[in-house]
Amino acid sequence: MSARRVALLLLVAQMLSMLGFSTYAALLPGLRVEWALSNAEAGMIGSAFFVGYIATVSYWSALTDRADGRKVYFAGGLLSTAGLLGFALVARGLWSAALCQTLLGAGVAATYMPGLRLLSDRASGAAQSRYIAFYTSFFGVGSALSLLLAGSLAAAWSWHAAFAGASAGPLAAAIVVRWGIEGRPPPLAGGITFSLATLFPLGAWKRVLAQRAAAGYTLGYAVHCLELFGSRAWVVAFLAFAAGLHASGAGFPWAPAAIAAFVSLCSVPASILGNEAALRLGRRPWILAVMLASGSCGIVLGLSAAWHWLPVLAILLAYTMLVMADSATLTAGLVATTSEELRGAAMGLYSLAGFAGGMLGPVLFGAALDLAGGGRSPAAWALGFAAIGAGCLAASPAARLFGGKPTA
Fold this sequence. Notes:
The chain is an all-alpha fold. The protein has a single domain (about 5-180, about 200-405), classed as MFS general substrate transporter like domains (Growth Hormone, Chain: A, Up-down Bundle). The protein is built from 19 helices and no strands. The chain has helices at about 5-15, 25-35, 40-65, 70-90, 95-110, 110-120, 125-155, 160-165, 170-180, 195-200, 200-210, 210-245, 255-265, 270-280, 285-305, 310-325, 325-335, 340-370, 380-405. Helix 3 (about 40-65) runs antiparallel to helix 18 (about 340-370), helix 7 (about 125-155) packs across helix 17 (about 325-335) and helix 12 packs parallel to helix 15 (about 285-305). It is globular, with a radius of gyration of 20 Å. The two termini are about 30 Å apart. The relative contact order is 0.16.
């Protein structure tokens, strides 16, 4: 089976597996009122996804060194489906919703990085970097479709129907990968096991972190994901707030969830084009410049809430593209700087660090809103965006102080 065909199947599966990713974020404004949640509690539910993700991602990723990655992916699709169906059937507040989000996060952990492993093992050189760029970009496509599907189903029926409808996506993705892609023997012997050593392969992680470039990409991914997932969790709520500042008929021309989906979809090329720019300009300078720009743009976006809808949407689009512009570059950099026998463990640690940042993002944003009076002013939203962008704003000066000469 050619690398191109594998890439195509994995891109389709990536979109399908993400159909439930943004469902909660799309429905956050209504669920927050229905369940009488504070902003911090609403952020906790969003962050529960990442609890499930980071608790299991190192195991799933390291498992691809010893077992068929297609089977790992299949298990993840079933877990995601169960989490979304649970949301539709049993979620009634903070703790039940958080439990379902945790299950969904564990499922995505078993599909996203193992899918990337299936792809990276079947390509090399510049083609590998470009396939990775498309794969990471399709995270955004899936997220946009998730927002659009959730908004449409909830408007036509209910939020329960939105979660139930989204559950079909990861199930279909699991079937596509398990039976649509040819298997390969894993690089290491041993088969499927479960222990603390496989869940947290400290020895392998120590070897990964001994490589300064791999350690740098891992840290960069952590601050990138804090901003990325913090903003995605609250963008619909921000748009709803901004629309409410205008008189009836003078607000946004579309529903907040539809706007968020459109912007997310438009930002997809940013990751692909960003990777191409990094190949020409150098990964490190590109990443640092993009992080500085995205952190600054987020603050401007928060302050713009009361402006006319057209500049608000333009700033939101620019911000979303900047947040995505270094995503593929970070991942391609990690893959290029780790050997094949360590790649699964490196991806697990990388994803663990990134989604730990992602777990912190929604809560940090919500806590910043509460600290600023509950998110009733543009300044409060600017503080929320500043909170999740602080790591990106600090990346460039930190690199100058501690980075030394880049190695990759």
